[in-house]
């Protein structure tokens, strides 16, 4: 095999509204429960991939810096096996999202890598196959193959665990405001955190049961264009996830004092008639779910407390695509 064409893909981050928190299969990254997310237009990863027989090892450049990343090479090995090739790859990736701080950079990273690498290897995967492939790099990446609202079906094996888009009416008005509390590396990774919770939290079985109920409620709210229920269920599900972390052994917590401060601001705005709700992934950053008409009021209030540069506005984003 000679050097192939370089393919470049862009994929956007997604923020889970019904959380995925725990695996039933670590190798295949099969989740304990189904989840639902919103793909965002503001944050994305662009990745270029070329396979070349002349390369002795995979070469990975992230934001201009050469990095040794066994996880990337392991993921590319899955692609090579699917394509029946042995060539190593050159990967150039640029993140337009703060890494490791709860803004789902791994989702956009592996969704972009799955699309670019599969095309560069000569594969022509459909969206379902791409979603399954992206999942092998990072569970949430399977959702970033699609735009807008997306459900990840837990499945029972590699073939049945993949994401698919959720239809919403054109009148479903939704935006998300990300408040960047911190861009520092997390003290405990998402992967390590959820593993600890699954193994040690006495409340984990109840989480799985309740999350299935939350997912049904959220999908009903989407179908009925019921923004208030949509926001309430999303906020409550996030708080259940963070409560799990504090029930693990040893317990841990991703929230910072400013996270709590921001949550109280959202609650105060809501008491004043602004329809807004918060959610947090595995990090301190607070995401505010709102309607577009309320964006400015929320941005102004958060900017007063945290600074305008930390308040980032996003809307529903597109599916992963070649550029």
Automatic annotation (TrEMBL):
Give start and end of each Mvd1 C-terminal domain.
177-309
One Gene Ontology cellular component annotation held by this UniProt entry:
cytosol
Report the SUPFAM superfamilies cross-referenced here.
GHMP Kinase, C-terminal domain, Ribosomal protein S5 domain 2-like
Domain Diphosphomevalonate decarboxylase-like N-terminal as annotated: residue spans: 11-163
Q: Which domain of life is it from?
A: Bacteria
Q: Which GO terms describe its biological process?
A: isopentenyl diphosphate biosynthetic process, mevalonate pathway
The keyword Nucleotide-binding appears for this protein: yes
Query: Which EC number applies?
Result: 4.1.1.33
GO MF terms held by the record:
ATP binding; diphosphomevalonate decarboxylase activity
Q: Does the keyword field hold ATP-binding?
A: yes
Q: Which UniProt keywords apply?
A: ATP-binding, Lipid biosynthesis, Lipid metabolism, Lyase, Nucleotide-binding
Q: Which PANTHER family does the entry mention? A: DIPHOSPHOMEVALONATE DECARBOXYLASE
Give the protein family: Belongs to the diphosphomevalonate decarboxylase family.
Q: What is this protein called?
A: diphosphomevalonate decarboxylase
User: Which species expresses this protein natively?
Assistant: Liquorilactobacillus hordei DSM 19519
